[in-house]
Amino acid sequence: MAVAELSAEPHPLANPGYGKRSTPHQLPPSPTDFAHLRPREAAIAAYVDRLPDGSDMSVKMLAKHLPYGQCAVRTALTRITRAGHLRRGRECLNGRWITRTWWSRTAHDDAWWSAFERGDVPRQRPTLSRAYVLLAALGRTNSAMSLSHAECQALAPLVNDWFARDATEDDVTRALTTGLPTPVHHPAALARRRLTTKLPPEPIRRDRPRLRLLECTRCGAPGYAEALHEGECGPCRGEPPTPRPRIPLPAARVHAHAAAIRAREGTPT
User: In whole angstroms, what is the distance from residue 96 CA to residue 105 CA?
Assistant: First the structure.
């Protein structure tokens, strides 16, 4: 996913030894690498993924080169971290502690990142789905809903049903972690029941009101997309401007306007 309106300046590198560090054994890039993220987070993740190792990963520098402010970038990086793509920390090299920002194109759960921290990363690793990542993180929101690997795999299709109905990660997490009984004897069974009984209705698709206008790539005049051809408006393509139709005023309105003008200027009728 491309990010629009990027800075024309090349993204700078951090000081030697700092900046972005890719995790080992990355899988090849795929168009669906960040499909589980929200559009803004997916765009920022795609941008970060293209940066070379050693690039400055500070919020300030990313915001300078992205069409988002620092607060938006900071929030997005938090969500990207929650999704399992990013971790920040420090690494000891030659007796010195170096600040690191580790990046993984493939989302990973906490167990994988813990193994990475220990230096024990398997070369072959499965791609975690958006639903799996959400379920695996439930225990961090409410420890009573901690699920096993097998339970996350079994429940993931039900979470995907929620996503298909425009539910967000927050919607699903809230449905699974609020108002829990005490104690929770079988978290997986409770999650299955709630995912089934609380499934949102099918979304009603309506035409959204037009909120944007495109611009002619040559003269910059705003116009609806259907008025542009390959990005250019009619006059720039050599077409004569479309005359605005004249709508005649009713006679009564003409007489009323004339009377108002005469009264304002003191002209006798």
Answer: 27
Indicate whether 113 and 134 sit together in one domain: no
CA-angle at 24, arms to 21 and 28, nearest 5°:
100
Would 245 be classed as within a structural domain? no
Ramachandran class of 105: left when φ > 0, alpha when ψ lies in -120 to 50, beta otherwise: alpha
Do 103 and 3 belong together in one domain? Answer: yes
pLDDT per 10-residue tile (average), the chain, 269 residues? 57 81 80 88 94 90 92 92 84 69 85 72 63 90 90 91 86 93 93 94 62 52 55 72 59 70 63
Question: Is the pTM of the predicted complex or chain greater than 0.85?
Answer: no
Q: How far apart are CA 209 and CA 147, in angstroms?
A: 42
The residue out of 167, 199, 231 marking a domain boundary is 199
Question: Cα dihedral angle (112, 116, 119, 124), rounded to 10 degrees?
Answer: 60
